[in-house]
Design the sequence.
C-alpha cells in the first residue's frame, strides 16, 4: 500500500470509529458542568435581611436544590432611583448561592417597574380598554408598546448583563415574567403602532379592504388612521390581526432585552421566557424562536393533576422549539389564586416533577422558597414558612431532588422521540374562539380528547405547529385546523403524498390566513385529496347517534356532514337518525392518497369512540408504542439518547401497580438491575437500557 493510500485508509477508518462512537447531543436545556436534570426554587433575597441568606441557602443545599431563579421582581432594589443602580447585593446573593453549589438564573425585573418610574412617566402605564390608566402596585402594569418603557427595560437589562454576563455562577436569563399575562395597552400610540403594522403588512388599503371584506357593514377604510383596536366582537380578520400584532409586540419587547443581554453575556448563558401552557394571548411559535429554549409555569390550581392534560401542556411547550424545556415554576403543594387552593396529595408534586422530566423537562423549580411576610402572595405554597423553618413539603422536594441526583446521568443527552404528532395552531384556536358557534365548543378540550387515548397507545406524542417538518412522523393528527391557508395545505399534502397519515378533526380547512372563508368547502385545499367535502355543519343541541367501523356511540357539540365525491373513500362512521339532515350521512371518512392517507373526523366523538378512533389511527399508521403494556393508571414516557433509552413510569392509580419490563434494565432510583418495578400510589420508576 502506498503511503498516501495508507493515510487515506487511516483517515477513513478513524472517521468511521469517530462516528461509531455514540456522542451525546448537546441539549441547550442541560448545562455544562451541571447535572442533566435539576431541581430549584424561586428565591427572593431582596425581601429578607442579608444576614438570613446563608441559612436559606444552607437549607436549599441540604435539600439538594441546585438552582435559584432570582431578581425578576427586584427592580426597585436594583434601581432605587432613576439611573442609580445597586447590583452589589445581587452579586453577593449569587456568590453566596454558589458557595452552596447553587447556580442562579436571573430574571429581568420588567414585569414590575418601580413606583418612581411609573409616577414620573405615567405614559409607561397601560391603558385599559375603557380608557383608564392602571394604578401602580400590582405587576404587569407597564405598557409593552411604550418606547419610553422599553428604553428603561433595556437600561436595567444592560446593567444586569454587563455585571453578570460573565459571572460563572449565572447560568442563564429569564426575560420579564409571564408576558402577556396582562392586556396590551389601549392608548392612542398603541393604536397608531397597530395601524402602521397593518400598513407594512397589507401595503394598500385596497388590499386590506378586500382581504377583510370590509364592504360588509360599511367597514371600508379609506385612511389607515380609521382602523380601530378591536374591543369585543369585531371583524374576524381585524380580531386575528390584533392577536398577531400582540405577538409581534411581545416578540420585539423580548428582543429589545435579548439584544442587550447577548451583547454582554457569554454564549453559554441561556435566555428563556416563562410561558403559561395553553395561555393564548399570543402565538408562542414565533415568540420562542429567539430564545435558547422555552420554559413554562406548571400550576394545577384547584383539584389534582390530570396527567393527560399536564402531559399535553409539557408536550406543547416542548413543541414550541422542538427541544427540551424547563418548568421554571411549579406549585409546592398549593397556590393562592385559584377557586379552592387545596394542597396536592403527598407524593403528587414529586410525581408531577418526574412526569415533567419524562416529557422532556431538564429542570423543575418550585415557586416559591419562603412566604413573604406581606404582599399579594403571602399565603402561597412554599418550602419554608414565614418563621424561616421548613414546612412539611420541604421533605418531598428534598426527596425529589435527591432522586434527580441519583438518576441524572441516565438523562444526559436524551430527549423524547415520537412517531405521532398532534398539530396546534394559534390562528385556528383564535378563529374558533371568536366564532364558537356553540358555547360548548372548546378546541383545547377537543385536543385533549385526542391526546388522551393517543398518548396511552403511542406513549409519546409531539405537539407542534403544522409548519414544522413532518416527514419523520407516521401519524399527524390535526383536531382543530380551522384556519388552513394554501401554504400549510401544501405542506400537509406533501407529507401525505410521501406516505404520511393525516387525520383532521371537525371544522377543518374552513378559513384562510385572514380568518375569511375559503371560497371552497371544507377542508378547503384538501378536498381533492380527501375526495370528499363538508356539505353542511351543525352545532348540536343534543347528542346524535353515530356508528360504523369504530362501534356505536354519540356525537356531541358538533357535526360536519360529509359528502363523498370519490370511489376511493371509505366511510368509517355514519350518523344515525338525528335531525333529518344528518341521518345516514358520513361522519368519518378516510382515503388513500399518494403513498399515504387522509382521514376526516367530522364530529366530536364520545370517549369510547375516541378510544376506538385512536386505536384505528395507531394501527393503520403502523405506530408502535415506545414501551409496551403498562398497568392502568400508570403513565410511561421515554427519552432517547444516541446510545440508550430511559423510561419514566408514574403511578397515578390510588393503589399499588407492578410494571413488568420486557428485559432486565438498569433501575437508577433503586440502585439495581431488574425486570419489574413495584409502584405505590404516586410511585415513580426509572428504567434505562442501551439502544
Ligand atoms: C406565576 C408567577 C409567579 C407567582 C406564581 C404563583 O406563575 O410567575 O410570580 O405569582 O404564579 O402561583
Sequence:
Amino acid at each position: 500500500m502506498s503511503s498516501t493510500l495508507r493515510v487515506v485508509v487511516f483517515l477513513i477508518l478513524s472517521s468511521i470509529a469517530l462516528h461509531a462512537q455514540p456522542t451525546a447531543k448537546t441539549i441547550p436545556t442541560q448545562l455544562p458542568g451541571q447535572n442533566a436534570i435539576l431541581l430549584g426554587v424561586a428565591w427572593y433575597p431582596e425581601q429578607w435581611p442579608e444576614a438570613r441568606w446563608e441559612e436559606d441557602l444552607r437549607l436549599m443545599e441540604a435539600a439538594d436544590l441546585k438552582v435559584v431563579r432570582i431578581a425578576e421582581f427586584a427592580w426597585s432594589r436594583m434601581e432605587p432611583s432613576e439611573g442609580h443602580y445597586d447590583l452589589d447585593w445581587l452579586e453577593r446573593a449569587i456568590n453566596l448561592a454558589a458557595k452552596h453549589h447553587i447556580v442562579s438564573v436571573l430574571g429581568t425585573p420588567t414585569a414590575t417597574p418601580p413606583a418612581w418610574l411609573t409616577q414620573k412617566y405615567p405614559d409607561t402605564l397601560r391603558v385599559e380598554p375603557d380608557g383608564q390608566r392602571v394604578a401602580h402596585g400590582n405587576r404587569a402594569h407597564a405598557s409593552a408598546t411604550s418606547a419610553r418603557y422599553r428604553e428603561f427595560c433595556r437600561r436595567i437589562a444592560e446593567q444586569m448583563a454587563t455585571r453578570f454576563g460573565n459571572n460563572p455562577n449565572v447560568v442563564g436569563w429569564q426575560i420579564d415574567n409571564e408576558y402577556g399575562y396582562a392586556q396590551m395597552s389601549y392608548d392612542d400610540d398603541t393604536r397608531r403602532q397597530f395601524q402602521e403594522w397593518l400598513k407594512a403588512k397589507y401595503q394598500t388599503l385596497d388590499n386590506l379592504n378586500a382581504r377583510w371584506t370590509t364592504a360588509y357593514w360599511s367597514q371600508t377604510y379609506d385612511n389607515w388612521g380609521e382602523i380601530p383596536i378591536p374591543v369585543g366582537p369585531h371583524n374576524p380578520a381585524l380580531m386575528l390581526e390584533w392577536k398577531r400584532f400582540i405577538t409581534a409586540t411581545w416578540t420585539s419587547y423580548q428582543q429589545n432585552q435579548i439584544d442587550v443581554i447577548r451583547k454582554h453575556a457569554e454564549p453559554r448563558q441561556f435566555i428563556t421566557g416563562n410561558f403559561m401552557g395553553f395561555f393564548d394571548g399570543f402565538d408562542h411559535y414565533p415568540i420562542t424562536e429567539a430564545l435558547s429554549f422555552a420554559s413554562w409555569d406548571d400550576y394545577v390550581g384547584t383539584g389534582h393533576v390530570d396527567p393527560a392534560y399536564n402531559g399535553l401542556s409539557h408536550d406543547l411547550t416542548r413543541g414550541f422549539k422542538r427541544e427540551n424545556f424547563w418548568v421554571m415554576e411549579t406549585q409546592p403543594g398549593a397556590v393562592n389564586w385559584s377557586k379552592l387552593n387545596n394542597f396536592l396529595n403527598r407524593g403528587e408534586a414529586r410525581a408531577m416533577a418526574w412526569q415533567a422530566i419524562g416529557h422532556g423537562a431538564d429542570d423543575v423549580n418550585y415557586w416559591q422558597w419562603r412566604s413573604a411576610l406581606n404582599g399579594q402572595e403571602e399565603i402561597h405554597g412554599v418550602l419554608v414558612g414565614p418563621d424561616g423553618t421548613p414546612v412539611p413539603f420541604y421533605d418531598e422536594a428534598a426527596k425529589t431532588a435527591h432522586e434527580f441526583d441519583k438518576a441524572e446521568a441516565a438523562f444526559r443527552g436524551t430527549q423524547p422521540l415520537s412517531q405521532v404528532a398532534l398539530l396546534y395552531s394559534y390562528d385556528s384556536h383564535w378563529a374558533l374562539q371568536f366564532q364558537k358557534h356553540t358555547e360548548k365548543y372548546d378546541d383545547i378540550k377537543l385536543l385533549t380528547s385526542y391526546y388522551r387515548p393517543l398518548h396511552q397507545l403511542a406513549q409519546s406524542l409531539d405537539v407542534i405547529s403544522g409548519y414544522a417538518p413532518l416527514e419523520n412522523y407516521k401519524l399527524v393528527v390535526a383536531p382543530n385546523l380551522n384556519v388552513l391557508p394554501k401554504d400549510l395545505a401544501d405542506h400537509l399534502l406533501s407529507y401525505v403524498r410521501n406516505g404520511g397519515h393525516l387525520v383532521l378533526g371537525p371544522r377543518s380547512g374552513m378559513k384562510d390566513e385572514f380568518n375569511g372563508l375559503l371560497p371552497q368547502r371544507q377542508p378547503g385545499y384538501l378536498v381533492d385529496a380527501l375526495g370528499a367535502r363538508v356539505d353542511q355543519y351543525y352545532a348540536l343541541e343534543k347528542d346524535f347517534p353515530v356508528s360504523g367501523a369504530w362501534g356505536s356511540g354519540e356525537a356531541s357539540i358538533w357535526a360536519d356532514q360529509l359528502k363523498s365525491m370519490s370511489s376511493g373513500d371509505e366511510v368509517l362512521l355514519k350518523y344515525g337518525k338525528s335531525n333529518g339532515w344528518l341521518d345516514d350521512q358520513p361522519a368519518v371518512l378516510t382515503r388513500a392518497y399518494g403513498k399515504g392517507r387522509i382521514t376526516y373526523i367530522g364530529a366530536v366523538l364520545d370517549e369510547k369512540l375516541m378510544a376506538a378512533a385512536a386505536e384505528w389511527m395507531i394501527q393503520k399508521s403502523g405506530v408502535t408504542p415506545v414501551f409496551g403494556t403498562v398497568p392502568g393508571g400508570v403513565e410511561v414516557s421515554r427519552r432517547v439518547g444516541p446510545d440508550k433509552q430511559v423510561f419514566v413510569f408514574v403511578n397515578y392509580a390510588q393503589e399499588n401497580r407492578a410494571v413488568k419490563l420486557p428485559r432486565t434494565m438498569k433501575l437508577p432510583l433503586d440502585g439495581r438491575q431488574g425486570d419489574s418495578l413495584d409502584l405505590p400510589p404516586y410511585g415513580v420508576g426509572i428504567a434505562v437500557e442501551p439502544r
User: Anything to note?
Assistant: Residues 1-23 have pLDDT under 50 and may be disordered.
